[in-house]
Structures are given as C-alpha cells and as structure tokens.
Amino acid sequence: MENQNSPLVNNDPFLRDLLLFSTIAKRASFIAAGSELGISPAHVSKRIAALEETLGCKLFNRTTRRVSITSDGEVMLVWAQTIMDNVNGMLETSLGDRVEPRGTLRISTSHRLGRFHIAPILALLRKRYPKLEVWLELVDRRTDLIAEKFDIDIRIGEVNEQNLIAHKIAESHRILCAAPSYLEDRGHPSMLSELTLHDCLLFRGRDQSFGVWRLEGPNGMESVKVTGPMASNHSDVVREWSHEGFGIIMASTWDVAPSIEEGKLVRILSSYRQTANVSAVTTVRASGSAKINVCLEFLTAQLNAGAYALKGF
Fold first, then answer.
1. Domains of the chain
2. pTM of the predicted structure, to 2 decimals
3. Structure-derived torsion over alpha carbons of residues 246, 252, 253, 258, reported in degrees to the nearest 10
4. DSSP assignments along 140-205, one per residue
C-alpha cells in the first residue's frame, strides 16, 4: 500500500514501521522495500528489529538470498493492513475530494464478468489513480465481504442480505437462446411451459436456483422446471455447449451478445426475460469510503458506456 504521503503515517513512528513491515511483506525484500520508501538498508533492519521487539515476535525469516514472512508475521500483517486502511479511511472522511484515492481495493466477482469486463476496467482505474492497489478475485460463489475482507462484491441479480448495500452499476437481463442447429432438430418452443420438453443446459450462477428458471413474460412472472443432459458451474462451458447444439440456455444479454451477432445463437421466446442487473455490493461501513465511491463511479461509467461496456438488446 502506498501510504507514505499520509501525514499521519509520516508523523507517527509506529505507523511508519507498520508501513515498512507491509512493504517488505509485499516485496519479499528489505532492499526493495527500502528503495520504495527511500530508507537505507541499515535503517530498514533497525526499524524492523524495533518493531519485532515491540510486538514480541519474529516477523521475518532472513537469509542472504531471501526474506520470508513468519507465521506470526502473517497474523501481524493482517492487523497492520487493517490499521493502515483505517488511517486512510479517516483521512478520506476528513479530507474528502482533497486527497487522492489510495490504499488497497479488494474486489470479488464471477469469472466471465470479471475476466472480460471488470478486470480491464480496473486496469483503467489504476492508471487514473496510481496510488490505488487492486486485488481482484474471481469466484463461482458469493463472497462474505466481512469474513473474507472484501471491499466490493460485484454481483448479477438480487441482493438479499440486509446488512449489505447494493449499488446498481449496470442494468441487464437474462434471455433464452439456442443454436440454429438445435432449433432445426427440435423446433422452436412457442411458450415457456414447452421448455420441459427440451434439453436445457444448466448453469448454476451465483444467484440462481439450479434447475428452475423464473422469467417475466406477458402473463407476469412464471417458473418452469428445466432438465438437460449437461450442466456446469462455468458459464463459458455452458455457452460453448449451446454453440454445438446441445440445448437451450438462459444467459445475460452481455454474455451472449457476441454469439447472437455471429449467428452462433438465436434468441427464443423473446417476450420473456429475467432481470439480472449488475450491482456492486459493499458493507455499510465501506460505503462511505472515498476510494470505494471512486471505484463505484468509475465502474458505472465504464460498464455503461466505456470500451468494456456490457452489451444489451
């Protein structure tokens, strides 16, 4: 974390030592950390020895070739990063727009959305705000923001947890599609209930009930129990199977837009759709952070009109 310009860090020896400790852990090198912070190697060793004495534990194993953090050091590092984040949060609150966003952003999201949209947008964010550091984790489940120490979880669909705040950053919905080859062989369903007679390729999204599709159509919300010969927890796999004519899929418009444009998939039952807006979910406490608000504003702008915007119909 690049906190060395913080007045609180500069004026407090303990915070300076925590910053040094965190930087060494990140760089795995006393020399590299000293160079980054403008401190001589001898002074780096002196300050870490003093910090180890204060904390009563050994933080690093040091040899002539490498530096590795100890198990006690791993525990202390979590505390150090929390303290530094809290210092930055206090400065953000007091200084507002007068301080450049800094510190680490820990973000989680699903695989395809993360790879093709969120990751490149965060790269653009980092170029604009070079004092931000980004950790992006792609997972096939919803994360526990508090227990897993994430700042933002970017989700598709409803947010039901009462202790979280959902910031809608893009509108979207899911639609039904199939390959031309499948439709030539099995025919076009004319109503939602006919999906029970078809092969449906099942993808368990982070917010979806497995094997039950709920869509809104001319008669309001309807549910249909679907089955099929193939299923996966990875949307890329299911979409490729649909390209090969194995069955019908329900997927977000931005996920299948290229396939429809290329003629690999055809939309069916076009009067039916399922709301699947993209939300950035935060804790109540984190929602007031300047760095998080900057990130949310940037994500909203880029997902709706940037180079990596989500396509719709």
1. 7-86 (1.10.10.10), 100-171+277-305 (3.40.190.10), 173-275 (3.40.190.290)
2. 0.70
3. -50
4. SS---TTTTT-SEEEEES----TTEEEEEEE--EEEEEE-HHHHHHH---SSGGGGGGS-B-EE--
* Radius of gyration (C-alpha) of the chain in whole angstroms: 25
**Do 230 and 239 touch, CB atoms closer than 8 A?**
no
What single-letter amino acid sits at 190?
A: S
Q: To which residue do tokens 């927890």 refer?
A: 233
CA angle 193, 194, 197 (to 5 degrees): 125
Of 280, 140, 279, 112, the C-alpha closest to 206 is: 140
Instruction: Divide the 313 residues of the chain into consecutive groups of 10 and give the mean pLDDT of each group.
Output: 47 82 88 87 91 92 84 90 76 60 88 94 94 89 85 89 89 96 96 95 66 92 92 88 96 94 96 95 80 92 93 74
Pull the structure tokens for residue 246: 């194995």
User: In whole numbers, what is the pLDDT of the chain averaged over residues?
Assistant: 87
